[in-house]
Amino acid sequence: MTDAIRSLRWYAGLAVVFFGVLPAVMVTLLVVRGSTPGSVGLLLIGGIPLVLAALVLAVRGIVGTDPAVAGRQLNLSMAFVAGADVLMLGGNALIRMATS
Q1: Would you tell me how many other CB atoms lie within 10 Å of the CB of residue 77?
Q2: Of 13, 16, 57, 80, which has the fewest Cβ atoms less than 10 A away?
Q3: Using CA atoms, how far apart are residues 73 and 34, in angstroms rounded to an integer?
Q4: Measured CA distances, 55 to 30, 39, 46, 62, 100 (Å)
Q5: Which tens digit of pLDDT belongs to each residue from 13-59?
Q6: Which tens digits make up the pLDDT trace of 77-94?
Q7: What is the spatial distance between Cα 24 and Cα 77, in angstroms, rounded to a whole number?
Q8: Where are the domains of the chain?
Q9: Alpha carbon distance 63, 57 (integer Å)
Q10: Are 52 and 76 in contact (CB under 8 A)?
């Protein structure tokens, strides 16, 4: 029998990496290099824990055995990634527009 959430496991893992970890690293590098206003660093205080929570939930969902629980964890993981993106990337854009 095939796994009903197999594709969700793949897409959730990729979403956490491409839309969670990479943007967090890029915004952190922008703040460290001084290429963006320093107040953007405050957004990382909320964004990084969301990405870490998404990463933990994604790993638990990928290795989970119960499809219903694993699917819920993977969906919640992708929701955390979306929230982190709105906070970090959207906040960065708004702060840059306000200071320019």
Answers
A1: 25
A2: 13
A3: 36
A4: 22, 25, 15, 10, 34
A5: 999 999 999 999 999 999 999 888 889 999 999 999 999 999 999 99
A6: 999 999 999 999 999 999
A7: 15
A8: 6-90
A9: 10
A10: no
